[in-house]
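[Discussion] Sanity-checking designs against the backbone

I'm trying to build intuition for which residues belong where. Below is a structure token string of 242 positions. I'd appreciate it if someone posts a full sequence so I can compare it with mine line by line.
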């Protein structure tokens, strides 16, 4: 199996986080708050590299900087995330034990924490790759999530995968070889038929899997405008509905 992450995931610059880690029930999580009080929050669903991956913590801090209590829980519940030294031939077996459609209990734990401990009244969710699939799943199942943004991750094996409960934005890279343009066109066609809430699908030219979560110092110059555009689009969607 080819490595779907065309950016070298083993080479990431150090990131000094702005937030802190907390224990929520049986989950560890990374939380960052804005500089002012707010009752709006965003959950970040990490990719296969887990809740401690520098890129994901950067995204948490970035969203918090736009005025949201932002939290990334360890959806892997303490089990080992995928690493850049693992062999992609083993990925299907790893994925069986890290199913992105089996995150409902963890989402409920985090929602309870945000409401009871942080005073959040409106909560959205964004996710990347594995976390993008988790977002798609949760936006079909959990009415307490006011809006979702799924980056290059879709639920593929459910007949009910088009009946979104709340506004959802799907972000894709044109050159993502894990999600074909045909799959994206099918998603768009089916959402037109079955979806009763606002949704949006956008494909960013020339971009590969994993493009939208890179820290600025890890971006390639030609990709930077599209990465920044995807960030703005994500924030705009969350601000519109959360």
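Best answer:
Here's mine. Compare freely.
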């Amino acid at each position: 199996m080819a490595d779907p992450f065309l950016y070298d995931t083993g080479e990431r610059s150090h990131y000094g986080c702005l937030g802190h880690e907390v224990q929520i029930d049986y989950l560890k999580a990374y939380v960052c708050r804005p500089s002012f009080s707010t009752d709006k929050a965003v959950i970040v669903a990490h990719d296969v590299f887990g809740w401690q991956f520098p890129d994901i913590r950067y995204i948490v801090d970035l969203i918090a900087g736009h005025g949201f209590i932002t939290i990334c829980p360890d959806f892997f519940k303490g089990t080992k995330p995928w690493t850049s030294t693992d062999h992609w031939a083993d990925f299907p077996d790893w994925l069986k034990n890290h199913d992105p459609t089996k995150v409902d209990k963890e989402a409920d734990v985090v929602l309870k924490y945000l409401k009871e401990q942080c005073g959040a009244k409106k909560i959205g969710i964004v996710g990347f790759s594995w976390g993008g699939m988790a977002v798609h799943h949760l936006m079909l199942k959990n009415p307490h999530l006011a809006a979702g943004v799924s980056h290059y991750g879709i639920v593929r094996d459910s007949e009910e995968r088009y009946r979104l409960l709340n506004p959802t934005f799907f972000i894709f890279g044109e050159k993502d070889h894990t999600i074909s343009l045909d799959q994206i066109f099918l998603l768009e066609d089916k959402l037109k038929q079955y979806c009763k809430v606002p949704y949006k699908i956008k494909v960013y030219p020339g971009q590969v899997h994993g493009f939208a979560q890179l820290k600025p110092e890890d971006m390639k110059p030609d990709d930077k405008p599209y990465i920044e555009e995807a960030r703005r689009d994500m924030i705009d969607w969350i601000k519109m509905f959360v």
